[in-house]
Structure formats: C-alpha cells, structure tokens
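Batch manifest, entry 17 of 40.
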Amino acid sequence: MVFSAENLSRLADSPALGVAFVKNNIDEFLEVQDECDLDDDFMQKLLEADIGDGNRLRILATMDLGIFTGLRARAVLVGEILVRTGTKIDNLDADAVRAVILGSRPAATQISLLNRFHMMFDVEQVQDILQSMPSPLPEIKPGWGRRDLQTHR
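Output type: structure tokens
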C-alpha cells in the first residue's frame, strides 16, 4: 500500500493500524503531514511509537502544544523527548512549559527542564513552579544565601 493522506484516512477506525502505517512510512508522512487530518490522541500515539527522536521533534514542531496544560500524559511525553534530545521547541508557550515541567518525573528531569526554560518566566512564576515540585525544591529562594555546616564534636 502506497502512503498517502487518503490511505491513512481509510485507517481512521483503527488508530493502531494508522500509527503502524505512519511508522513504516514516516518520511512520506512528514512530507504530507499537513494534508492529514489527525487528532491529538493519534499524534500522541505516534510520538510514543518507535520513530526516532528527530522525527518526534519534527512532529512536535507542527502540534498545538498549548493543549498540555490539562493533559499530564502528553506533557510527560514531551518532557522526556526534550530532556533526551536537549532541544528547545519554539511553539511551547509558558503555560505548556509549566505543564511539561510539573508533569515530568523524576525531579532531575524537572530540574533540567526548568533550567532550560526558566527565561520564559519571571521570578514569581519560577518560585510558583518550585513550590509545586517535590521537596527540597520548594525551599529554594532567590539570592546568594549560604548555608554553614555546623561542626559536630
């Protein structure tokens, strides 16, 4: 079967087959992606498929990433891709980045994402994000404070 947007649309009743069809024809799909009428659930399944991070980034670049504010599973998926690739995506707004940071796990992933995207937020927003993260991150305060180690005798 030759890949086309029309042939992909014929598989609309079977998302698993559609994802497999795209996965096996990823280069052709990326050429005609704009012609395909795919919902966000399908795109999430495609991002979860074994298509390589380079292809995932190309797909993410075309998606409306503002949808992540209420969809933790998608935010986690995007966070994993961003940390793994070390890439920033231009179409992430501050609300989507916040959802990706707070939805991701473990804390090391959250810290990596916050370090990468902190310039999108003002100080109060960064503090709000930190307050929503696992301990001890909420204890981080602005400034150059120093902790002294107490001597034990």
